[in-house]
Hints:
It is an enzyme of class 1 (oxidoreductase). Its EC number is 1.2.1.3. This is aldehyde dehydrogenase (NAD(+)). Homotetramer. This protein is α/β, with parallel strands linked by helices. The chain has two domains: about 50-125 and about 145-260 and about 480-485, Aldehyde Dehydrogenase, Chain A, domain 1; about 265-460, Aldehyde Dehydrogenase, Chain A, domain 2 (3-Layer(aba) Sandwich). About 40% of the residues lie in helices and about 20% in strands. Strands 12-15-16-11-10-18-19 form a seven-stranded mixed sheet, sandwiched between helices. Strands 7-6-5-8-9 form a five-stranded parallel sheet, with helices on both faces. Strand 6 (about 180-185), helix 7 (about 190-205) and strand 7 (about 215) form a beta-alpha-beta unit. Helix 5 packs parallel to helix 6 (about 165-175). Bound molecules: nicotinamide-adenine-dinucleotide. Nicotinamide-adenine-dinucleotide (NAD) binds near residues 243, 246 and 247.
Amino acid sequence: xxxxxxxxxxxxxxxxxxxxxxxxxxxxxxxxxxxxxxxxxxxxxxxxxxxxxxxxxxxxxxxxxxxxxxxxxxxxxxxxxxxxxxxxxxxxxxxxxxxxxxxxxxxxxxxxxxxxxxxxxxxxxxxxxxxxxxxxxxxxxxxxxxxxxxxxxxxxxxxxxxxxxxxxxxxxxxxxxxxxxxxxxxxxxxxxxxxxxxxxxxxxxxxxxxxxxxxxxxxxxxxxxxxxxxxxxxxxxxxxxxxxxxxxxxxxxxxxxxxxxxxxxxxxxxxxxxxxxxxxxxxxxxxxxxxxxxxxxxxxxxxxxxxxxxxxxxxxxxxxxxxxxxxxxxxxxxxxxxxxxxxxxxxxxxxxxxxxxxxxxxxxxxxxxxxxxxxxxxxxxxxxxxxxxxxxxxxxxxxxxxxxxxxxxxxxxxxxxxxxxxxxxxxxxxxxxxxxxxxxxxxxxxxxxxxxxxxxxxxxxxxxxxxxxxxxxxxxxxxxxxxxxxxxxxxxxxxxxxxxxxxxxxxx
Length: 508
Ligand code: NAD
């Protein structure tokens, strides 16, 4: 396999960024971004200072004063234009996603398609920010609720969905009347600058200042400055549970709102009646796709003892054939891990699993290291585990799948729920009663509970997020928009009298 050279990557990145309106020749700074594709530099930019963050928040707050009063369908029209620009520049943004985080072409384009989809959704939503009307206990009175914008929304995003997560938050926040300051992953600044340039164009073309969308670049320290800013009404933070533990209490301490989308440890139960062809395809996409670097990646298979050997063999056979290589090459299905740290955690977890009694079924090694010393390609790996030991309770952000056996469905559900995370889960079964039980209050405790489909690859129409250490936030579809607004309850008296609630009398 041949990996692209540094100048090849840099020139592709510069061309894609330029097409989106970002001139990298005018940029430049001390922070070098490395591409996971070959481990070589792909960007060098300056990071924001705390003063830059304050200034961005101040511009956002000033823009909010006007934006909140713009009719929601007019705000929706700006998001519609943004969606059109995303359609036009889908390949440019997808190229940047591949270069900065290593996604294969199809998945990178899928990520940008998700941005387009959420824009379409948000445009419709801009005419549907409904409140309820309630009956009053008093004659001649009416109760209703009205939804208003919140203010400045701070978005902190993870490397593995470098643009889609921002767009889920931003398209919805904008139609809700909020303005947004984005601190993207330090791994993907070019993706952020290019996406934000397209949004700015949509805003400015429609006669707005463009300040409704701001970007600050940098690492956790820059994220912290956003988290601590009292002018940021909502902090929507996507990343590891470690990050959420730091962010959540700090936002709560200033009575801000937070929306946390954190780590997952997602399992599929495979019942005795499962269609094993479909199950195998579902497992392989969820566990090995994106090189195991989705929050919803499948990390555990809990298979009935009557099928566990067959499932393991089929998954292993599929893994042996998976093309691993440069995500820029057609035909590659498994690209690189993001960096050396990710490779270290892959290796450490495999050792911990085998030390605690697991047996390696397939994979376990780094590949292509002779082609690129600083890029980390690994074999998707399956380890058969005798029990759900400590390492299985931990999210390892790599293509590492543990297989466990069960005899009784209650035992399988208990294993599914025994981990600290609660993002996504699946059951593969042809038995309707098993599927219903898994989706019931006595079933999976996750935010996403699927039947005959893997744990990853959610659509934007549903609310996305999970429970327990996954943080409890919900984003994207359904009624997730409510997190970006505040509710006012209105009581209107048209009776000409003043009866008090609960029969209280207070005659003056
Ligand atoms: P990370 O936690 O290292 O970083 C995520 C973001 O948070 C980055 O922008 C980072 O700069 C910032 N950050 C880190 N510490 C911070 C702090 N103390 N204050 C403010 N900002 C801080 O995560 P990552 O390696 O980029 O992404 C992988 C993780 O993200 C995995 O755990 C994955 O499961 C999770 N993830 C969750 C979802 C979800 O929707 N639940 C989606 C994508 C990724």
